[in-house]
Specification:
Blueprint lengths: L6 E2 L2 E2 L12 H7 L11 H7 L8 E5 L6 H12 L29 E5 H13 L11 H13 L3 H9 L8 H12 L3 E6 L3 H5 L4 H15 L2 H5 L1 E8 L5 E2 L2 E2 L5 E3 L15 H7 L9 H8 L2 E3 L2 E3 L2 H10 L13 H7 L6 H9 L4 E4 L13 H11 L3 E4 L5 E5 L3 H12 L8 H14 L3 H12 L12 H12 L7 E9 L2 E9 L6 E8 L3 H10 L13 E8 L6 E8 L1
Parallel strand pairs: 3-6, 3-9, 4-5, 5-6, 17-18
Antiparallel strand pairs: 1-2, 7-8, 10-11, 12-14, 13-14, 15-16, 16-17, 18-19
């Protein structure tokens, strides 16, 4: 079979890599920007263009899935590639207002490598023995072969490559060197999901090393560097380190652990979400979107998960869209490591606690995980945790960023065989059981334990809000399946502090009123006087009312519970 005849499935391999000219994710967004959510971040182009042909012109920008990496890579391709010349894609966008807007517009031969597409074609290649090409034995060989094949679609390039005896089917660096020596024009290379081999082939160390050597061949030597006016890699994982050095020292990396100065270009900011909710088509409030999808603090800037915001606004409902974007197997593997206390740490994080960790020795891969510090570093890179800065650049504070991730983590944790054995889970079950049995003394004792736990500090325990949070933390795990929780729900002549409404009528409705330096008796009396139960009496035959007080003098909790007939 000749190179010109090679097809895999229904997808022809040529014409997709050098100077792509088809609609991509960014172009489609621009086309429908008047009817769909479109956030203009094209000023990012100006920041990248400022580095063209400079010493620091190699970028690796990594973020979790669905954080806008591909659409940004597509945006850069549409701006720099000669394939899009004359299409006026950027008219009236931010970048068009900049002084040097046209300096680099569609002036470059762009090599765009989509590693997900390469993987899909490689699977087709390996599944059909009739497609076998001599010496193309793994995905790294296959990647180079496809790019060279695409380059040879250009007749001038093909002529130069064919003249060079040292350029084989899998020597992309040599092919580019030959072309650039002939044309004098450097390429721009964009590689989306650069870390796919580290994620999808995470146990194949020989293949990973071969891939890194391939990248080194492109970017390490002076001849290789001269072939590129700009190189831009995207992925989830930062570039792997060997010892303390990056495998590609020439690349400037921007990741979830060190995002500056590009914090605002991946994800939505507060101001951008504020504009989104102004649309008449948006039925969700800014506060709802903030609770569910914000919380990634990149260098102190609050960032929202953009895919989830768009999905929620489109559906008109806030829920978790995270689980549909990636497998959670990696998270499961990490929390089931034998590192001391990792399971307790995860549960505490879900309950609202924070955990400090060091990212100083993280090797940026998914296999060589040495301790809890590596676990938290990787979970931040994957987007399961947010992290805040400390005075030490390598010490970070991990936390669960928002309701979306919290829901995902809770579902994962509850599927683990150790879940029911955890003391926190047992305590939550005991607290709900004591409420149902009208055992106020036990409820007060358990709340005291929760109050003294790491998730609820004495420093912040200074009002009814803190007391409410303490009880919600205690009931978090035991009420997941059978209850929905409402705070300050309008009922009767006022607002009851906390309502646990059962999903089925088999469970009792629970109304809780809090007092701070008052008494549990006052709380119970208020529920009755304000007729908080009136709204529910027609729906529920089994209603439990709970009064809880905290005394700042004695530092004790008091609880009274009654069952209404």
């Amino acid at each position: 079979m000749t190179a010109d005849d090679v097809e895999f499935g229904e997808v022809k391999v040529m014409g997709n890599i050098l100077n792509p000219d088809k609609d991509n994710s960014f172009i489609r967004l621009v086309k429908f920007k008047d009817s769909e959510i479109f956030v203009d971040k094209t000023d990012f182009i100006g920041k990248i263009s400022a580095k063209i042909s400079a010493d620091k012109r190699f970028f690796a920008i990594t973020r979790p899935r669905r954080f806008g990496k591909t659409v940004t890579a597509d945006m850069l391709s549409a701006y720099y590639s000669k394939g899009y010349a004359g299409q006026k894609i950027f008219d009236n966008l931010k970048i068009s207002k900049e002084k040097n807007y046209e300096e680099h517009l569609n002036k470059y031969n762009v090599i765009y490598i989509d590693m997900n597409s390469i993987k899909d074609k490689y699977i087709s290649y390996t599944s059909d023995k009739s497609l076998y090409i001599e010496d193309i034995d793994d995905i790294v060989d296959f990647l180079q072969y496809l790019v060279i094949l695409d380059l040879k679609e250009n007749k001038n390039y093909a002529e130069q490559i064919n003249k060079a005896p040292l350029v084989g089917k899998k020597s992309l660096s040599s092919a580019l060197d030959v072309i650039c020596r002939y044309t004098g024009e450097p390429f721009i290379l964009i590689m989306d999901e650069w870390d796919l081999i580290y994620r999808e082939y995470k146990n194949e160390t020989v293949l990973q090393e071969k891939f890194i050597e391939f990248l080194r061949g492109l970017f390490k030597s002076k001849d290789g560097q001269d072939c590129f006016a700009l190189a831009y890699l995207t992925g989830i994982l930062p570039i792997k380190k060997y010892n303390s050095q990056s495998a590609l020292n020439g690349f400037k990396e921007y990741n979830m652990l060190a995002p500056e100065p590009f914090e605002t270009y991946f994800g939505f900011t507060e101001d951008e979400v504020a504009e989104i909710v102004k649309s008449p088509d948006c039925t969700l409030s800014h506060q709802e979107l903030k609770k569910w999808y914000e919380g990634y603090k990149l260098n102190g800037i609050d960032i929202y998960n953009p895919n989830s915001v768009v999905s929620a606004v489109s559906d008109g409902k806030c829920k978790s869209y995270w689980s549909g974007t990636s497998s959670n197997e990696e998270f499961v593997r990490l929390i089931n490591t034998d590192f001391q206390g990792i399971k307790e740490d995860i549960i505490n994080l879900i309950e609202g606690d924070e955990v400090t960790f060091s990212c100083a020795n993280f090797q940026n891969d998914m296999v060589n995980i040495k301790d809890k510090n590596d676990v938290f570093s990787l979970l931040v890179c994957l987007g399961y945790l947010g992290c805040a800065e400390t005075k030490n650049q390598y010490r970070k504070v991990a936390y669960v960023p928002n309701a979306e991730i919290k829901a995902v983590l809770m579902d994962i944790v509850r599927e683990q065989n150790w879940y029911e054995r955890m003391e926190t889970i047992k305590r939550s079950e005991s607290l709900l059981k004591a409420i149902k049995e009208l055992d106020g003394a036990t409820v007060a004792t358990l709340i005291q334990e929760i109050h003294n736990s790491s998730a609820v500090t004495l420093l912040d325990y200074n009002d009814e809000e803190s007391l409410t949070y303490c009880v919600m933390t205690g009931l978090l795990w035991s009420t997941l399946d059978d209850y929905s929780c409402h705070r300050e729900d309008q009922s009767g002549k006022g607002r009851v502090d906390l309502v646990y409404e059962p999903i089925t009528r088999r469970q009792p409705l629970i109304l809780i009123e809090f007092k701070y330096d008052g008494s549990a008796e006052e709380a119970i009396a208020q529920i009755k006087k304000q007729e908080y139960c009136k709204r529910y009496t027609g729906q529920f035959k089994n209603i439990i009312i709970v009064g809880i007080n905290y005394s700042t003098k004695t530092k004790d909790h008091q609880c009274l519970i009654e069952k209404l007939n």
